[in-house]
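W.,

You were right to be curious about this one. When I first looked at the sequence I had no strong expectations either way, so I just let the prediction run and decided to look at it fresh. Below is the sequence, 84 residues in total, followed by the output.
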Amino acid sequence: MYVPRSVRNKIARKKEAIQKKQLQAAVKEDLKMVALGTSKINYMDPRITIAWCKRNDVPIEKIFNKSLLGKFSWAMETEPDFVF
């Protein structure tokens, strides 16, 4: 049976989309019980993270969201060589 190339390409793209969605669903299911930000917020001194970001030229906004930036504004003056 002859299937036009355009149809085969559409089928291939749809199969890839299905696989991607299945992978996303599996990751979401696996992460349901993990609070990704908990340890960073509750257990780690923000001065350590901020000093590390400054030493390694990592934007602090990549690590802390806006609300955490406001919450930890007191720690933003930390020097890159901070040691706990």
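Here's what jumped out at me. Residues 5-31 form the longest helix (27 residues). And, maybe more interesting for your project: The chain has a mean pLDDT of 88.

Coffee later to discuss?

I.
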